[in-house]
Amino acid sequence: MATGKIMKALSGFYYVQAGDELIQCRGRGNFRNRGIKPLVGDTVEYEAENKTDGYILDIAERKNELIRPPIANVDQALLVFSALEPDFSPALLDRFLVHIESNQIEPLIIISKMDLLTEEQMGNISQYQAVYQQLGYRVILTTTNEEDSIEKLLPFIEERISVVAGQSGVGKSSLLNVLKPELDIETNQISTHLGRGKHTTRHVELIPVGQGLIADTPGFSSLDFTQIEAGDLSEYFPEMLARLNQCKFRGCTHTSEPKCAVKEAVDKGDISEQRYQHYLQFLEEINSQKRRYDK
């Protein structure tokens, strides 16, 4: 028996990296009976007589697991947003951050196309950058220059499994092609009507980039809150989590309760009013989903 990491899943086969070798494996039949499916990113135990005839025997405990793309043990999400074309969307960024926090994944916020901004637009982006950096998030500003993107991003990719996610139409697949040109990931033209690009990859694979690994499929294609409870939402806003025990009432929803530390911090300007409004918006979305399900 040997240990390796699943690098690719395709047509019922799992390709396990063990040292310098890539072993083609199948999953054991009892995985299906137990409702378990091996995922790209899994650390597994396997046995193989040769490179094309192996079987996965056991799967190590996962630290997290994503549904879309189906991948496990992700360390980091590269959240790619553009400064314009399409315009930077703080509401969408906060939605991504909630999902990433709930999966215990560390985000790296990347705002691209900074060289296309006017001085006034650059000032607006700098204000957003300051808000997120004060919360402890890492924010990288890049330009349309490919070498600039590579130089700034490579150090953050080292020794990590990363998934790329973010705003539609900002070129997530193009970013992967910049980081690893030999990938030549196929992308369709962005629809000017929808403002979206379409990624055409049909399987999930971990691609070595520098000393790290990046999933070749953009992640978090589903951004609804069906897996998040209303009572847990504030825990995925770091500025609210830090004040969790300061509210007068246990289980405070930070909406209408008196002596709420979060609302007081918003009034003082210690918590971003915009972030708080996004929290209220997401909370209502979760509650309305629950009301529909309870009918």
TrEMBL record:
HAMAP family named in the record: GTPase_RsgA
Record's keyword annotation contains ATP-binding = no
Q: Which Gene3D superfamilies match?
A: Nucleic acid-binding proteins (2.40.50.140), P-loop containing nucleotide triphosphate hydrolases (3.40.50.300), Probable gtpase engc, domain 3 (1.10.40.50)
Hey, which family's this protein in? Belongs to the TRAFAC class YlqF/YawG GTPase family. RsgA subfamily.
Entry protein name:
Small ribosomal subunit biogenesis GTPase RsgA
PANTHER family, alphabetically? SMALL RIBOSOMAL SUBUNIT BIOGENESIS GTPASE RSGA, SMALL RIBOSOMAL SUBUNIT BIOGENESIS GTPASE RSGA 1, MITOCHONDRIAL-RELATED
Q: How does it assemble?
A: Monomer. Associates with 30S ribosomal subunit, binds 16S rRNA.
Task: List residues of the CP-type G domain.
Answer: 63-223
The compartments listed are: Cytoplasm
Q: Which UniProt keywords apply?
A: Cytoplasm, GTP-binding, Hydrolase, Metal-binding, Nucleotide-binding, Ribosome biogenesis, RNA-binding, rRNA-binding, Zinc
The cofactor named in the record is:
Zn(2+)
Indicate yes or no for the key word rRNA-binding: yes
Q: Which residues cross the membrane?
A: none
**Which species does this protein come from?**
Alkalihalobacillus alcalophilus ATCC 27647 = CGMCC 1.3604
